[in-house]
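Hi everyone,

Forwarding the result from last night's run.
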Amino acid sequence: SIERAENETERKRAVRKLESMIERVSWLVTALLKIAKIDAGSMRVESKPSSCAETIRRAIAPLEPALDLHDVSLVVDLDQDSSFEGDLLWTAEAVENIVKNCMEHTPAGGSIEITAREDVLATTIDIRDSGPGIDPVDLPHVFDRFYRGRAQDNEHAGETSGFGIGLSLAQALVSAQEGTLRVANNPEGGAHFQIAFPKLVV
């Protein structure tokens, strides 16, 4: 604790740890309030043509320092003209939460790949990581609120493991736009998340 710190270095370390805890709790409260608004149908969600490139840019910008710190590389491969009918800001937050989750479960030296494609049926945003993947027991519960599964026992997760709410919020944000969010394990290893916005077929 700060009071028990024996020198200035230890005090600074304790203060940084406390600040980090406060930030995480603040994020949790904000996330829960957003989910409550979605559940109540009171969150304003826009539906208009939105650029995938701009959505992904907004999603990854806040995470760039953390990605560098974790030594996780990010590869973005998308059709520059791809777009979807939905809310750009809420979708960017959903993508950010997914990428953050992937980062926390990808070992140093690993990578995260984001792709975006549009065809006549749907626009999809795929996020894949080179981590250990998701335990088959945990897969059906990944989007359950407060579910952390076996990740909390993963030595790589350590203090970075979350509250089990980020992916739940991501799914809620996508579902509120009548999109879908699915998860599976890549055959070659790692997790694979896919956001899909179907197009209305007349």
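The chain has five helices and seven strands.

Cheers,
N.
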